[in-house]
Amino acid sequence: MHESTLANGLTVLVQEVHTAPLASVWCWYKVGSRDEGPGVTGVSHWVEHMNFKGTTNIPRDQVKGIIEQFGGSWNGYTWIDQTTYLETATADALERMLFIEAERMASCLYEPADCESERTVIISELQGGDNDPEQRLDTEMTATAFKAHPYRHPTIGWLGDLKTMTREDLYGHYRRFYVPNNATLVVVGDVDTADVLTRVQAAFGGIAPGTPARRTTTTEPPQEAERRVHLRKPGTTAYWRAAYHAPRFADPDFFPLLVLDAILTGASGLNIWSGGSVPTPQRSARLYRTIVNAGLASSIGGFLAPTAEPFLYAISATVAHGQTLAAVETAVLEQCALVARDGVTVAELARVRAQLRARFVFDGGSVTDLAHQLGYFATIGRWQDWGEVNGRLDAVTLDQVNAVAAAYLTVDNRTLGIFEPTVGADGEAR
Amino acid sequence: MALAPVRRVLPNGLTIIAARNRLIPAVSLAIGVNAGASADPDGATGSAALTARVLDKGTARYGADAIADELDGRGASLSVGAGRQQIVVSATCLVDDLAAVLPVACDVARAPSFPEAEVTTRRAELLTAIREAADDPGSVAVDALNAALYPHGHPQGRPVRGYAADVEALTRAHLQAFHRRAFAPSAATVVIVGDLDADGLVDAVSAQVGDWTGPATAPAALPASPATTERRLVVRAMPDKSQADVAYGFVGLSRLDDDYYPALVMNNALGQYALGGRLGDSIRERQGMAYYVFSSLDAGLVAGPLMVRAGVAAENVQRTIDSIDAELRSVLTGGFTRAEVDDTKKYLIGSLPRQLETNGGIAGFLLSAEMFGLGIDHDARLPERIARVTHEDVARVTRRLLDPARAVVVVAGPWTGPSA
Predict the structure, then answer these.
(1) How many CB atoms lie within 10 A of CB B385?
(2) Using alpha carbons only, what angle is made at residue B91 by residues B85 and B94, rounded to the nearest 5 degrees?
(3) What is the pLDDT of residues A85-109, one digit of tens each?
């Protein structure tokens, strides 16, 4: 791993991996939906869309094809803490990939007509998500679990803001956050480090540093009472979910809670981009055994993501055909109370430690995934965090897991949500 | 950089294919049998899907708890998936754990015990999945399109997950019968990829499956795909949904058709290249109507569907259908440009190293190549197979497949039909 910083503040991470003739380039920005206030929720994500629409030196109609000529794929995503862009292609595309990212950082156009055209694309993205009852429930619950912290609004934004935001809102946000000293460029693959650094200097060295906007934030006040969301909509299937306030990645409690989640729902790893492309091993997990094998739910999952500030730990269940929300809720909460009271066993700790160690290998199963992990952790903490996950995992003790179970899985710390399908107009449960 | 896999056919008819990949100290395994939902008996749709769900829940040698102990203590992942023409048992583990995981994965394919209680539990899971799909406009639209393109009980017209009424009646005996028919060594291929010597991997698999016996089975011949002759509109009203899903399609072609590679290029240029090809340029980029619009070509052992998909607001449904019609008419009459065809070919050839980077990606590629008899060196020959496609080939396959006058158009969502 090589790390350097250009004079303009751009952090550059390069890792040589020569197993396939590929290179993956990711450019990460410390800006996400938590940096948005009232009236402009969703602006970070919309800006991400606009940053694929042509630059001073890449005309709008030539955006497509640059990476495709090298058989490459490109994409981007926005979440609560970060926005990122990637290209993965044969390694001979390196120069073009760097050129695209340098253009994206400094020279996007924001043509007013393109902003308008993208408004309806994003509203379509939001409405497609609304077709999914679980996503609706997640949105409602996150907004309920947080009173004050900007993690409360969905990354895509509220519909009202998407209808009223202006081109100037978008362009202003872009100019405030897209400066080299707020970015991390990651290159992983069949490359030569010295050659990469020369090319990076040539592509990015001329971009002037800026003053990245201060990230306004607040401390979420401790939750004082259980909160509930009861969504009643037409549908066919009932969904149950619990969300507990959780520690941020840097907190000493994070890994004990990651272990606890693996004991309850199976180890999911730490790659929120691909999940390591391997299904979660759940057969021995407590909630899988007591809820899914018992026939109460058709699926159960846990979600604990590494984040810069304290976010949520969520447990989700799909109520099995013929079962009830009440039965699922009773059984899951019983298990949560049990583990909070009696703790976990040495055997469970040993098992999920092995699971998580394997997951961390799968999490880096391609040059794209490796580059993702380095950049992701650079954005929420330090890139070195990714290399230290095994050490932090190994240091977790039984007492620590028991302590986080007792501290976090409490009544007052939780928001419970249910999606209860109502009967449709035709008399059928839909 | 060719994969140069090792391939060995055992005396019992089972094929083993192994390749080395050094990226991470892990191994991916795929055991495929050439029978999927297309082999579901009439009146017992969902047989393959439920067989897959119960297959890894206990075997003669390993009860469910033993499987859990062997796998979960090592962070290994084992899953079973059913498609139209295959069931695949997939496993991923660290190199060091292969010796423990391989016997379990092989036994799951060979000797599942289908415990009665597991059949009951997983049947309820499958029924839940069927009900969830019935609430999802995308699934509803695709199911309705398949049903319209492949009527009269054609296997391609039925959902892989099956119909609820059929699944409710599935018993342990159905699954045992399906397993007996589908899982014979002569119908099975084991692909294994990871950071171990390929010959050693073949030996390790051979030790687990060499004594597997079973009748030599040939997959049942599938009925020929029907040809659609007239335009149809099918509406599945889902008034409470936020937006509609459009599925616009045709009967396509088989993977073994002489026109397959021209069709692959045509489909990419139409609805894949960059962000949705020509369709993406029109419907997403120029008109801002959809977050997703793309086309897909499902070329199986029989001619599967060629499909255009888009998710749009109700007020844009008609304009979307009109735009798809316009793009198809445009390529029918004017054809794709030479640049479009060349760019797409270059992309498809250049994307192979990405497709063949990961253990899972390589395993899937090799399993598919074996299923369709494309040759053990398919990865080395594929660039030439794509490069040979000419502009005229693409024009011919466009005329053959993309006639809007023969399209079936399905809309599922808050849209009730064209306004008068």
Answers:
(1) 15
(2) 155
(3) 999 999 999 999 999 999 999 999 9
Q: Are A352 and A268 in contact (CB under 8 A)?
A: no
Residue B91 has pLDDT above 70, yes or no: yes
B381 phi, psi to nearest 5 deg:
-95, -20
Q: Count Cβ–Cβ pairs < 8 Å, chain A vs chain B.
A: 204
Structure tokens at B135: 């609430």
The DSSP annotation for A138-180 comes to: HHHHHHHH-SSSGGGS-TT--HHHHHH--HHHHHHHHHHH-SG
Global model pTM greater than 0.90 = yes
A382-398 burial: b if 16+ Cβ within 10 Å, else e: ebebbeebeeebeebeb
Chain B touched by A175 (CB under 8 Å)? no
Inter-residue contact A89 to A72 (CB < 8 Å): yes
- Phi and psi, residue B185, nearest 5°: -55, -35
Reply yes or no on whether the pLDDT at B309 is more than 70. yes
Q: Does ipTM come in above 0.90?
A: yes
Pick the residue from chain A with its C-alpha nearest to B414.
Answer: A131
Residues whose CB is less than 8 angstroms from the CB of residue A411 and which lie 6 or more positions away in sequence, other chains included: A226
Distance CA B99, CA A371 (A): 31
Tally of CB atoms within 10 A around A253: 17
Minimum distance, in Å, between the CA of residue A292 and any CA atom of chain B: 8
Q: Which residues of chain A have a CB within 8 Å of the CB of B119?
A: none
Contact of B233 with B409, CB cutoff 8 Å = yes
Distance CA A53, CA A66 (A): 13
Give chain B's count of helices (H) and strands (E): 16, 11
Q: Does B132 touch chain A (CB under 8 A)?
A: yes
Residue pLDDT, tens place only, B26-78: 999 999 999 999 999 999 999 999 999 999 999 999 999 999 989 999 999 99
> Do B241 and A131 make contact, defined as CB atoms within 8 angstroms?
yes
